[in-house]
Amino acid sequence: MKKSSSLTSRVLRRSLWLTPCLGLLSVGSCASEPEGLAEAAPANVTVKMDFFHKPLPEIALPNDIATRYDAESPTKRRVNASMIAVTEFESRLRERLDTMDGWGVLMPIVVPFSAPIDIQSVIDRHDDVDYATEDDAIYVINITPSSPRYGEIQHLDIGNGNYPSVLERQGLYWKNDPRGDSLTLFFEEADEDRNRNGRLDPGEDVNGNGVLDPGEDVNGNGVLDPPEDTDADGLLDVPNYRPGHDPAWGDLKGRADAIMTFYERQTNTLVARPLVPLDDHTTYAVVVTRRILDLDGKPVGSPYRTINHIGQTEALQPLLDVLPKGLSLSDIAFTYSFTTQTIRAEWQAVRDGLYGHGVQKHIGEQFPAEVSKLHAMRDTGDHFPGMKRPHLLHGETWRPALELVQQQFTGGTPGVEYDTLNEGTRAIDYFTVGTFSSPQLFPREDAQGNPLPLDSQVWPADLSRKPAPTYPEDVHFTLSIPRKEVSPRGEGKPAPVIILGHGYTGNRFDVLQVSSYFARLGFAVIGIDGPSHGLALKPVELTLARGMLGGLGLSSMADALFSDRAVDQNADGIKDSGADFWTSYMFHTRDMVRQFALDYMQLVRVIRSFDGQRRWAHDTNGDGQPDLAGDFDGDGQVDVSKDSPFYFFGGSLGGIMAMIAAGVEPAITAIAPVAGGGGYADLGPRSTQGGVPEAFILRAMGPLFTGTLDADSGELLVETIVADLNDDITFPIATVSGLKPWDTMVTENLRNGVRRCGFISEAGTVRTSLEADLNDPVEIRFYRGPQVLPSKDCQLREGAVLIATVDQFQESFSFQGTPFTAGQPLVSLMEGLGLRRSHPDFRRMGGLAQMLLDPSDPAVLAQYWQKNPITYPGTGETTGAHALIITTMGDTSVPVSGGILVGRASGIVPYLENDPRYGVPANEKYISTYTTEGVHNLMRYVNPETGGGVHLDIENFSGGNDVWGSGIPRIDVPMRIGFEGEDLLGGKSAHIVPYTRPEGQHGFDMPGSDTDRAIRNCLAACTEEGEDPCNCSATEVYDVGFFMLNMVGRYFQTGGQVLSADLCQSRNDCSFIPALPTPRDPSTLD
Question: What is the pLDDT of residues 160-174, one digit of tens each?
Answer without folding.
Answer: 999 999 999 999 999
